[in-house]
Design goal:
Helices cover about 75% and strands about 0% of the residues. The longest helix has 26 residues.
Length: about 300
């Protein structure tokens, strides 16, 4: 309980500071855009590289990873199917699918893993899976569905190479796989720059809340509530069913995968939506509502399975 509440409290405070900045106009009319670009092009790539370069990649080869991958695919697949039927468009549907399945495994998942599960490393499989597989694939789809989808074939095939987040993630995996040790004078500045990522994302998210309408209204009402339902209820239920019945997990192992699947949508998804200028309201509202909905869900999961 303490881990759940403390993790959410930290996020709420920083978002609140962002809202106050937006209300007072301290960063001007382009403040949110500058923070978003800083996070996407500079800070987040540095953070992902430093995290993955020192990661133990062996943690991804486990039944927990399979549960994570399958529950992620289930939640995202439902949203994609509905989006295709309703004609929501590739970019908007991609953002909604991410909000339905991409969990906040970093700035919220780690403290919850420490206080609820007792081990921060337990969030590593979902963190690595999202960084290595989900992020590059989703951003490539967004690139190809936007301006990147209108060039010649060779340029479209090279789209992932031009995405800073995908490149940084794959570079970090390569460094970890070969066991290369990055010298301190190189790694330390990258770590310092990477530390700006989470605050920049949360502040930009907070600024976006100033002057916005109440969440879950307007044209995005249906995709927002579908995304929140899938993230807060659908994905944890899928993870529980898969872990308990398909993989025979029980006790602490079962609690681990269900708790990580019940985490809310990650704030950096709003950065992606802003960067590609698609589904921004959908991302903002889905993140906000799934974060609020995940509090009672996480408490219930910890009570029933803990």
């Amino acid at each position: 309980m303490r881990g759940v509440l403390s993790g959410f409290a930290v996020i709420a405070v920083v978002i609140g500071v962002g809202y106050a900045i937006g209300r007072r106009g301290h960063l001007g009319v382009h403040g949110r855009e500058v923070l978003t670009k800083l996070a996407f092009h500079v800070a987040s790539p540095a953070l992902l590289f430093t995290m993955l370069a020192g990661a133990d990649l062996s943690v991804i080869f486990s039944s927990r990873l399979l549960v994570t991958a399958m529950s992620t695919a289930a939640a995202a697949g439902v949203f994609i199917a509905v989006g295709a039927v309703r004609g929501w468009g590739v970019g908007r549907t991609t953002i909604g699918a991410l909000c339905s399945s991409y969990v906040n495994s970093g700035n919220l998942g780690i403290p919850i893993a420490v206080y609820v599960l007792g081990d921060a490393s337990l969030v590593a499989p979902v963190l690595l899976f999202q960084l290595i597989v989900v992020t590059p694939v989703a951003l490539t789809v967004l690139d190809l569905s936007g301006r990147g989808g209108k060039g010649p074939l060779w340029r479209r095939l090279l789209t992932p190479v031009g995405n800073p987040i995908a490149v940084a993630s794959l570079a970090g995996v390569a460094v970890s796989a070969v066991g290369m040790e990055i010298p301190g004078p190189v790694m330390d500045p990258l770590t310092l720059i990477g530390n700006m990522s989470v605050p920049a994302v949360l502040l930009a998210f907070g600024i976006s809340l100033h002057g916005s309408t109440a969440p879950g209204r307007g044209a995005d009402r249906t995709p927002v509530f579908l995304s929140v339902a899938l993230k807060a209820v659908g994905q944890p239920l899928a993870a529980w069913a898969l872990a308990a019945y398909a993989f025979g997990l029980h006790g602490a192992a079962l609690l681990d995968v269900v708790v990580t699947s019940a985490l809310p949508a990650a704030q950096n998804l709003y950065t992606y939506a802003s960067r590609y200028r698609v589904g921004e309201t959908l991302a903002r509202d889905a993140i906000l509502l799934s974060t609020a909905a995940s509090v009672p869900v996480l408490v219930l999961v910890a009570t029933l399975l803990g």
